[in-house]
Amino acid sequence: MYKRQSKNYFSHFSFLDMLQKDPCQKQACEIQKCLQANNYMESKCQAVIQELRKCCARYPKGRSPVCSGFEKEEEEKLTLKSTSK
């Protein structure tokens, strides 16, 4: 007789990731709304961008996927600083 095996298609890590809401998601959505409303002129959305930066600073690196761009930007700045000496 055929024995059906249950398969877990999600790893433990990705399942936990799905359960945890991104703490800075709201700010990221606000940036998208602002950019759309202002014809994608970043200069008009500096206040909401700053709010996302503040949110990202409150959490450890890697906790908020929407902050990964800011984290990469900071790493690049540090690399440029250390190579320019």
From TrEMBL:
It holds the Pfam family CMC4. It is found in: Mitochondrion. The keyword Disulfide bond applies. It comes from the Eukaryota. Gene3D superfamilies: CytochromE C oxidase copper chaperone. Its main location: mitochondrion. Keywords: Disulfide bond, Mitochondrion. The keyword Cell inner membrane does not apply. InterPro entries: CMC4, Cys_alpha_HP_mot_SF. Belongs to the CMC4 family. This is Cx9C motif-containing protein 4 isoform X1. It comes from Vicugna pacos.
